Amino acid sequence: MKAADIRKTFLEYFQSKGHTIVASSPVVPGDDPTLLFTNAGMNQFKDVFLGFDKRPYSRATTSQKCIRAGGKHNDLDNVGYTARHHTFFEMLGNFSFGDYFKHDAIQYAWGLLTEEFKLPKEKLWVTVYSEDDEAYDIWHKVVGVPAERIVRIGDNKGGRYMSDNFWMMGDTGPCGPCTEIFFDHGPEIAGGPPGSPDEDGDRYIEIWNNVFMQYNRTEDGVMHPLPKPSVDTGMGLERIATVLQGKHSNYEIDLFQNLLAAARTAVAAASPGGEGFDANSPSLKVIADHIRACSFTVADGVIPSNEGRGYVLRRITRRAIRHGYKLGARTPYFHKLVAALVAEMGEAYPELRQNEKRITEVLKTEEERFFQTIANGMEILDAALATVETAGTKQIDGETAFKLHDTYGFPVDLTADVCRERDVTVDQGGFDAAMARQREQARAAGKFKMAAGLEYSGVATGFHGYEHLTVDAANVTAIYVD
Ligand code: ATP
Ligand code: MG
Ligand code: MG
Ligand code: MG
């Protein structure tokens, strides 16, 4: 079953259960300052859960474009290391706004997986929130999942991959206990079942989260009951496609094949040595992942910059460029993947097709810019890595990381990404200190420069007063800094 058919089957299944099919919202949330990018299907319904907004339906289903590359849910560092994480992915979801609750949610999910998709029941594991006896009983007594495949999990056990059965959109907002469904990819893959000490392997992969929305968490940490208990679910399209296509890694599904091939071709064409790299290199996966995140972000109106969403976009783009560089690319190649992405996903997401030219141009400009400095920056970083490896310290100092950022346009997470490949870390505290010092100096210098050009810029652009001038000076500084 192709990813496109899975998306359709999901939406039609829930439509047959009385759900209205609602279009994905943009990856850039409209008016939610608490959120950098849309990170879950429920985001566009946040106010409906909170009782501030009403819709003509009480059941909805969506395939939502999500980005998890910053904020509370950040998977940027997982990409290329796990079989299941992307920066951009599609989340299939069904929602009840004060309509059905635990019973129906669980039975719909089980019905779709075992009857429509015909997954073998014995390969499915479920987790429930430790105190949620009701959910436990539905799984065990009503659905018939044996006790040995139901795991009770608490909240906030910490750790990067640790299961957490209390779902929160962010530090504030709708939240509640959840129950999750995992698929066992078999004993040949390392990793233990959910809740076990080695659960962070890729054997038991979480495919679907069903959240029982019951609270609104406010900034003071207090949980206020929602007007009506609701349901919010999310299943990664790429993860369920992986299972249904009999694969283990998300990157093996149909949706990624053409993108990976395009990445390989584009990198080889930009490399003096041609395709002198491993065709299975994780770097190709990172590139195929990142072209989706970058293109969808640009399509929704973001451009690379030095702050906020624009900086996240710049960081992802530059990480992708660096992975191509690692394979041998010495000239811009990344923007050439936009065409392949449009061919793959343009039908489901027409905004890609409509903006193809602009996306290509924006990414190309960013690439041209970074290719001017990447070679010198990599030389410095390689030398620093060689030094720490000889010294056995395993850490790059903050000054070097800052110089790479300041002079060569290496966001610090890019430097850390390179270092991690060699088991070296970056002194983040030292970097932050160098950055703070530079900001202070540059701010003073920027103000001075602007003050000197005051007459000219005031005449040319229409002077908006000193307040505006200060803001401009800060922006000039920021651009100059990078
Ligand atoms: P994981 O524990 O694997 O990081 P999660 O618990 O953070 O996943 P949820 O917030 O529960 O994920 O999101 C709901 C579903 O969205 C997950 O069950 C999974 O199928 C999918 N999903 C989450 N993060 C990603 C990602 N980075 N890439 C692809 N799919 C994802
Ligand atoms: Mg996660
Ligand atoms: Mg999880
Ligand atoms: Mg989860």
Task: Describe it.
Strand 8 and strand 9 (223-236) form a beta hairpin. The longest helix has 25 residues, at 428-452. The chain has helices at residues 3-16, 46-50, 102-116, 133-143, 237-244, 254-270, 282-299, 308-327, 338-345, 350-354, 356-371, 374-391, 398-408, 412-420, 428-452, 454-461, 466-481, and strands spanning 20-21, 59-67, 88-96, 124-129, 150-153, 166-168, 173-184, 204-217, 223-236, 395-396, 425-426. The chain is an alpha/beta fold and 482 residues long. Residues 158-162 and 452-482 have low confidence and may be disordered. Helix 12 (374-391) packs antiparallel against helix 13 (398-408), helix 13 packs parallel to helix 15 and helix 15 packs across helix 17. It is built from 17 helices and 11 strands. 46% of the residues lie in helices and 16% in strands. Strands 1, 2, 3, 4, 5, 6, 7, 8 and 9 form a 9-stranded mixed sheet that branches. It binds adenosine-5'-triphosphate and magnesium ion (3 copies).
Tell me the fraction of residues in β-strands, as a range: 15-25%
Could you report the average pLDDT, rounded to the nearest whole number?
A: 90
Low-confidence stretches: 158-162, 452-482
Judged by helices, strands and strand pairing, the structural class is: alpha/beta
Described by strand count, sense and barrel closure, the largest sheet is: 9 strands, mixed
Binned, the helix content reads 40-55%
The value of Rg in angstroms is 24 Å
Give the CA-based shape. Answer: globular
Q: In angstroms, what separates the terminal alpha carbons?
A: 46 Å
Instruction: Write down the secondary-structure element order.
Output: HEHEEHEHEEEEEHHHHHHHHEHHEHHH
Catalytic activity: tRNA(Ala) + L-alanine + ATP = L-alanyl-tRNA(Ala) + AMP + diphosphate
EC number: 6.1.1.7
Family: Belongs to the class-II aminoacyl-tRNA synthetase family.
Subcellular location: Cytoplasm
